[in-house]
Design a protein that fits this description.
Number of helices: 10
Bound molecules: D-[(amino)carbonyl]phenylalanine, zinc ion
Structural class: alpha/beta
Largest sheet: 8 strands, mixed
Order of helices and strands: HEEEHHEHEEHEEHEHHEHH
Strand content: 15-25%
Amino acid sequence: TRLAGTVDWTDYNTLDEINDWLMSLVSEYPDKVSLVKAGISYENREILGVKVVFNPGNEDRTVFIESNIHAREWISSAVTTWILNKLLTSKDTNVRQIADTHDWYFVPVFNPDGFVYSHTTDRMWRKTRVPYFLCAGADPNRNWGYYFNTGGSSSNPCSETYGGPSAFSEPSTKTLSEFITTIGPKLGAYIAFHSYSQLMLLPYGYSSSHLDNYQDLYNVGVKAASSLSQKYGTKFQVGNIVELLYVASGGSMDWVKGTFKTPITYYLTNLGILVDMDLFCQLIKLFRPLKKLSTLS
Ligand code: ING
Ligand code: ZN
């Protein structure tokens, strides 16, 4: 059903539709959902999200879900809103169990200016819309301030992976980082959705050296990937960003992991398939014991 004329997952949604839907959730579930102003973009768009709390006492099991930092990756925010809707409405016992035992932050569109531009003007737009003389936009997944510009980003403003003139030059990443800082220490898991390819990627993107709890996270990923392939025949690869793809410094998750030592950090690409809530629940349940396992240094 189209809620307040906005989101129904049979088609991609515009930024206004997504934001209207988020605001409608606050009216519909005032005791559970609160609106989060997570940042503001160059073109002065508010970066909206929601915090969802079903029960008290889950603060130390807070899950943050990021999507659409790359403008054209529309499926990523569709996955985020899908999961959010299921957590709020599903009566499935698995879904209820993971919903009720975590606190949740959902910020579906990290890059609203680029997202709007990809809807109105250039379907393949990836970057922000900050003007840089000859070209527009920095890659917001190369602009975060942890080992910024140490590989895999371009210094050419016309490149798709232009890192920007300095870390957090983009108002969106700067203000998002300020918001995340207010909740960073209590984050148990940070998941970012991207699209294209079938990968479960672990930080860091600036380095191939492994996280303190790499093996735990790797094992979880392999289990999740094997469930995915059993159910859909889809082959996902699991591993460090550099080892599986390429060096890419300045990513959001490098900064989150590096700054707050968040125990669980995953980039999931092309998990349109993860609108399968059985698999999403399995993933979150596999994450559950990891906080204890990982040594946080
Ligand atoms: N790929 C990611 C990119 O930003 C990535 C891969 C993820 C790099 C995390 C660095 C950190 O290039 C897509 N499709 O966005
Ligand atoms: Zn991406």
